[in-house]
Amino acid sequence: MKIDKRINKNLLRMSLCIALSGAAVVSTKAQSKFHVDLDYHYNLGFSENKFGHNYGRSDVEMGGHSLRLGARYDVAEKWSVGGGIGLDHYTGDEFNTMPIYATLRYKPFKKLTGAYAFTDLGYAIDPSFGDFYKGFTGKLGVGYTINLAKHFGLNFQVAYDYKDFRNVWYGYISTDTNMPIFYESNATRHSLSLGVGVTF
């Protein structure tokens, strides 16, 4: 319980740091082709693979929360590229990750300028504090931005979320010796990601 409380406190501190960093970046933004995105995502897990077995929602109630801070530049009328950093907490089986990712957006419709398709691809790092897992991370989905002012809008996203957790320790009780046995493996999770945020 004490470890969980420390992890939750670290996650809260990092969330505040990401939000404050986003505000600082926005205040220095110089041109309309440059954008800063601050988004919250709920990851509804529907499948997980661990120690060679697949599990669904009937086996584990998988969820998760994600905060992402990204910066993009419009390289063409329909294309926008950039990168960002995130802070993710997956529930059911508990995993914390800090992904660093590249993002690509494409606006296919001239008349529906707020609609776009996007992908985020990156790798979660293991910082020197907290309990974090490394591994590949990726999103593929669609979004819509509602502009409320020249440099401010609300952003909505629906995406497929893939997460790879590296070097996870598992344990079980041996039926032969009645002693705990531990081993290291990897895990993957597939989720439906529902996002809402702000764009500057």
Describe how the helices and strands are arranged.
Elements: H1 2-27, E1 34-50, E2 53-56, E3 63-74, E4 79-91, E5 95-106, E6 115-125, E7 135-149, E8 152-173, E9 180-199
Describe this structure in words.
This protein has 200 residues and is mainly beta. Helix content is 13%, strand content 63%. It contains one helix and nine strands. The protein is elongated, with a radius of gyration of 19 Å. The N and C termini lie far apart (39 Å). Mean pLDDT is 84; it is low at 1-8 and 15-30.
- Based on DSSP secondary structure assignment, what is the total number of beta strands? 9
Instruction: Specify Rg, calculated over alpha carbons.
Output: 19 Å
Share of residues in strands: over 45%
Going across the major beta sheet, what is the strand order?
Answer: 1-3-4-5-6-7-8-9
Tag the structure with descriptive keywords:
1 helix; disordered N terminus; 8-stranded antiparallel barrel; single chain; 200 residues; 63% strand; mainly beta
In short:
With 200 residues, this protein is mainly beta. The protein has one helix and nine strands.
